[in-house]
Specification:
Strand content: under 5%
Largest sheet: none
Order of helices and strands: HHHHHHHH
Structural class: mainly alpha
Pfam family, one: Cation_ATPase_C
Shape: elongated
GO molecular function, one term: metal ion binding
Subcellular location: Endomembrane system
Organism: Rotaria socialis
Distance between the termini: 26 Å
InterPro entries: ATPase_P-typ_cation-transptr_C (IPR006068), ATPase_P-typ_TM_dom_sf (IPR023298)
């Protein structure tokens, strides 16, 4: 949980706050005092991303055993609550997909005003891509070698592929 908070709050804030201003941003009129900070477009993006991530999480939890090659830990816990203390591939997959969706959504979050190309200027900010690459690499290490310390089971290449696909899906 600490890692998720670190990725979502501290490191994401640092990466996004160091984004240099663009010419378009500097030419934009300031917002009025009574104008909402969250624009209708931002609200739509927040709502859409939330729905997407919830759909992925529930799909992994309740249908993952059918297409991801994982045992249903949810069903096992219903019969024996002590199963929750064991390492779960299904819960690791949920964790991994969530972190990857969050990381890829950070790329989306660089653009606030409906710009289509979220990758435009991505290499102008070494803080952003440095933090992003660090978080991505740390996630690989945590899931691959974290074991009991991070309550992570090993994922195979197929499950990593699905996690990555779910993460990339955040860009759409």
């Amino acid at each position: 949980m600490l890692w998720v908070n670190l990725v979502m709050d501290t490191l994401a804030s640092l990466a996004l706050a160091t984004e240099p201003p663009t010419e378009d941003l500097l030419n934009r009129k300031p917002y009025g005092r009574t104008k909402s900070i969250i624009s209708p477009l931002m609200l739509r993006n927040i709502f859409g991303q939330s729905l997407y991530q919830l759909a992925v999480m529930f799909t992994i939890l309740y249908a993952g055993q059918y297409f991801l090659g994982v045992e249903s830990t949810v069903q096992k816990i219903q019969h024996d609550p002590h199963v929750a203390k064991q390492l779960s591939t299904q819960f690791t997959l949920v964790f991994n997909a969530f972190v990857l969706m969050t990381l890829f959504n950070e790329i989306n979050s660089r653009k606030l005003h409906g710009e289509r190309n979220v990758f435009k200027g991505i290499f102008r900010n070494p803080f952003f891509y440095g933090i992003w690459i660090f978080c991505f690499a740390a996630q690989i290490v945590i899931v691959t070698f974290g074991g009991r310390v991070f309550s992570c089971a090993q994922l195979d290449i197929y499950q990593w592929g699905w996690s990555l696909l779910f993460g990339i899906g955040s860009l759409i």
